[in-house]
Amino acid sequence: MNNSRILIYDGSFNGFLTAIFVAFEEKVQVVGIQKSSVCQSGLFSETQTVLTQVDKAKRVWEGIKKRSRSAIKNIYFAYLSEQEGIELLLYRYVLKLFSKDGDVVRNYADGTVLKISQLARSVGREKHRMEAFVRFQLTKDGIYFAHIEPDFDVLPLISKHFRSRYADQYWLIYDVRRRYGLYYNLEKTEIVTLDLKQACTNSIHRNPALQDEEHAYQDLWNNYFKSTNIKSRINLKLHTQHVPKRYWKYLSEKKPAVQA
Amino acid sequence: MSFERIREKLNILADAAKYDVSCASSGSTRSNKNKGLGNSTGMGICHSYTEDGRCVSLLKILMTNHCIFDCAYCVTRKSNDIPRAAFKIQEVVDLTLNFYRRNYIEGLFLSSGIFKSADYTMERLIAVAKKLREEGNFNGYIHLKSIPGASDELMRQAGLYADRLSVNIEVPTVSGLKLLAPDKKHEDFTKPMLKVKNEIIQYRAERKIIKSTPKYAPAGQSTQMIIGATGESDKDIMYSAVHYYTHYNMKRVYYSGYVPVADDSRLPALGSQVPMLRENRLYQTDWLLRFYGFQVTEILNSEHPNLDIDVDPKLGWALRNLHHFPVDINKADKVLLARVPGIGMRSVDKLIQARRFRKLNWEHLKRIGLALNRAKYFITCDSSHWEHRDLEADKIKGMILQNSSGKFRKEYGKQLQLF
């Protein structure tokens, strides 16, 4: 009881891994792991602030990876879900991983394991959605620019996809909700933060920052989207199931629907 | 270029191409070479969905809707009075590249009405693909239509630029084809199919020995059949689908409920319902054959030439074969688990992994995500509560239907029998 603590970390994934390291090393009875920005101290437990140390984080990462490759993927994906209390859940997951022999990762009858794998799947789904729903708009500076507002923090996961696909064009994908973006300069991607006055959502008004040609292509795409629909098979329920409404405002083909 | 004119053409030629249901962009991996544009990762991405719920993955257009043929089921048939248009090669290339750069699409699906001759048409399709690959340095997905009657040499070239090739067989029976498309011969469809199949086999074999052998249609070929135009049975359709899967190594056979586009006494009248539920049942059957280890003869045979409309084909099969059940979730092998109604392949894998750790009970099964409303009549698990009664098939069916809902229910909405 005397060693029970809430660990506070800086909010980065490396920080979280360091917290796990500390928990194992100092044999802490972990009652919570919290980001420093949102921490609440418990009534009966002490708090301990963990300083992020990349080498320790790396040891944890490698250690888990050695145990199971799918576990490390699940952990990273589930972490990005930003669910409340995800850190503690992941800590329990890691405990299970190290306490038993055998591939606990597939013990789907275990609540924690199932929950983590479901969360990881949700994040994976969101990643895939973002690979599909990003809509670049060509600015006058020659940058293909896109806004997104994903449910989970998937930017780090989609970087590779866009880097290898659009290797010959400048592009920037900006997460409006989390206020950071990825910029690709033909060499590598870097993290940028912008001071955006307003998100560049679907608008019937011409945006002066965009090339004229851009409006023409959006118009063509919009037309294509309408022409390829078969009216006698209309199924709006299925449509919104595949393209949930929360994404519409950034999809140029749904522009009229958003305006209406 | 004039965007006004392009927009007009795009509207006409996208509208004409939309009856092709294939929009797959999966099955091919092409990496981005020398900082070019695009790649295909093998999994395919649906960038949007139309209001009819179909995926938009490729820019699906016709090169032209001028056509010398007069197939009754086709919207671009020569005798149909519709606006006609034709794209220039460069226009298709520009559209594709600009859509692709904005992340609207995975690539191009180019088909065409047949003008002048099959070979002339095929040459134009190949020219677009070639230009995209060689001048646009484009590594995205390209699906070309094999024009029925195109020469072997052109089919060979087409496969070198395209990821997938397809010929739509359209009418599943030879007699139906005679009725609806008297100008076309069955061999016109199968000849390019056979050529492509053989080339794929040959290139693949060579690639194993010489690694630099170019890829030939890496995503294989597919075909499509129209459903409900000629009064064919589900058995006719699925047996001919199986024929194409086995004899031509098809990656996919698509089933397209006939959308009435012509006032023709040989066809369902304009305005009649698109057989969407039937289409759905056929796809379910297709999946059972390809992933669940079913043989087509088990599901469709001379005793049961048509699929059940009110229940899915797997449940239908199970109800006819109750002697295989109940299955013990904790012991049954993979093949048998896959045959239980309400258990999909993902659940099968999860069950097999999870039961290595402990015996599974109803609570576990529910959380893993089985459709217990159907499965519970066919399984036992680590619990003494299971369906002990020796129920008859009709009774089980009645109970399942009563405890579930379906969006098509109103279409066959006759009063359900109460046990």
TrEMBL record, chain A:
<dbReference type="Pfam" id="PF13566">
    <property type="entry name" value="DUF4130"/>
</dbReference>
<protein>
    <submittedName>
        <fullName>Probable DNA metabolism protein</fullName>
    </submittedName>
</protein>
<feature type="domain" description="DUF4130">
    <location>
        <begin position="86"/>
        <end position="253"/>
    </location>
</feature>
<dbReference type="InterPro" id="IPR023875">
    <property type="entry name" value="DNA_repair_put"/>
</dbReference>
<dbReference type="InterPro" id="IPR025404">
    <property type="entry name" value="DUF4130"/>
</dbReference>
TrEMBL record, chain B:
<dbReference type="GO" id="GO:0003824">
    <property type="term" value="F:catalytic activity"/>
</dbReference>
<protein>
    <submittedName>
        <fullName>Putative DNA modification/repair radical SAM protein</fullName>
    </submittedName>
</protein>
<keyword id="KW-0411">Iron-sulfur</keyword>
<dbReference type="InterPro" id="IPR023874">
    <property type="entry name" value="DNA_rSAM_put"/>
</dbReference>
<keyword id="KW-0479">Metal-binding</keyword>
<keyword id="KW-0949">S-adenosyl-L-methionine</keyword>
<dbReference type="Pfam" id="PF04055">
    <property type="entry name" value="Radical_SAM"/>
</dbReference>
<dbReference type="GO" id="GO:0051536">
    <property type="term" value="F:iron-sulfur cluster binding"/>
</dbReference>
<dbReference type="InterPro" id="IPR058240">
    <property type="entry name" value="rSAM_sf"/>
</dbReference>
<dbReference type="InterPro" id="IPR051675">
    <property type="entry name" value="Endo/Exo/Phosphatase_dom_1"/>
</dbReference>
<keyword id="KW-0408">Iron</keyword>
<dbReference type="InterPro" id="IPR013785">
    <property type="entry name" value="Aldolase_TIM"/>
</dbReference>
<dbReference type="InterPro" id="IPR007197">
    <property type="entry name" value="rSAM"/>
</dbReference>
<dbReference type="GO" id="GO:0046872">
    <property type="term" value="F:metal ion binding"/>
</dbReference>
<feature type="domain" description="Radical SAM core">
    <location>
        <begin position="62"/>
        <end position="193"/>
    </location>
</feature>
<dbReference type="InterPro" id="IPR010994">
    <property type="entry name" value="RuvA_2-like"/>
</dbReference>
